[in-house]
Specification:
Blueprint lengths: L5 E3 L6 E3 L18 H13 L4 H11 L3 H7 L9 H14 L10 H6 L7 H11 L3 H34 L7 H29 L8 H23 L4 H33 L1
Antiparallel strand pairs: 1-2
């Protein structure tokens, strides 16, 4: 049409009208695309993969556990973010404010854990080597373990996926399907048992009452909900087997969490 501006694509040098190149899809950058508002919008999109996919995917993980994993296992991926994308976004948010000791475990949390008695001698040796008392050592340890936990939390996901290959070996699922399901489970835990608890305790002053026992009870209750709902959806499990396998998985998850914490402890200790 007369009066339309003809642009030359910066990428492929194709000439076109409108805001997007009809050959490669490159967008014409206008002055409005270089404002502070546009920059903030780009950052938000980069973190959340915006266009409502993040909110839609997270909502399904909460209210219809297992559905997103089933969709990806079935090759239907356009409408949702992958569980691993949601996991990394929630992982970033959680470790910005790691109040609840779930995947981030302070030295005190490590010592009162079921296997905490095994840690006393390594801690004593390290304190002697570093010429520190317990208070100083705990401060240094806690600062270091937060950064390492961001990377090592994937260890929990791998450990959580391993028993699924045995429990549901006849359900026509591949290892990658089990792993994607375990990532969705970890995302659920990050949001419900870490981020949401952090938000609640920042609004209501009950943080002093949320000890290891409360965290464990909440972990068991919420994961039992997730496993029973998601196993029905993802593995098509029914009846008494659904209940039994969900309870067995709770035990495996607790073991996986403790092993992850031990790995985190010794990696942190080694890095000091």
């Amino acid at each position: 049409m007369a009066g339309e501006i003809i642009h030359t694509c910066k990428s492929c040098h194709n000439q076109f009208t409108g805001n997007y190149c009809n050959n490669c899809g490159e967008k014409v950058r206008m002055a409005a695309d270089r404002t502070l508002r546009s920059l903030v919008a780009d950052i938000v999109k980069g973190i959340t993969f915006a266009d409502n996919k993040f909110a839609r995917t997270l909502g399904l993980m909460l209210y219809q556990p297992g559905f997103v994993s089933a969709e990806f296992a079935g090759g239907r991926t356009v409408r949702y973010l992958s569980p691993i994308q949601v996991f990394f976004v929630l992982n970033l948010v959680y470790f910005l404010f790691p109040i609840v000791q779930l995947f981030n475990a302070s030295l005190t949390t490590q010592m009162i854990a079921p296997l905490g008695f095994l840690l006393k001698e390594p801690i004593a040796r390290k304190m002697t080597t570093m010429h520190m008392n317990f208070e100083s050592f705990a401060l240094v340890y806690n600062l270091k373990t937060i950064s390492l936990a961001k990377l090592l939390v994937m260890v929990f996901v791998v450990l959580a996926s391993m028993p699924l290959n045995f429990l549901y070996r006849k359900r026509n699922r591949f290892f990658t399907d089990h792993f994607g399901y375990a990532v969705e489970l970890a995302s659920f835990n990050l949001f419900v048992n870490a981020i949401m608890v952090d938000i609640v305790t920042s609004i209501i002053p009950i943080g002093a009452y949320i000890g290891e026992g409360v965290v464990t009870s909440l972990f068991i209750a919420t994961n039992l909900y997730f496993l029973m709902r998601s196993s029905y959806t993802f593995y098509n499990e029914r009846g008494w087997r659904l209940v039994v396998k969900s309870v067995v998985m709770i035990l495996f998850l607790k073991v996986a969490l403790e092993i992850y914490r031990m790995v985190l402890f010794f990696v942190t200790l080694w890095s000091l």
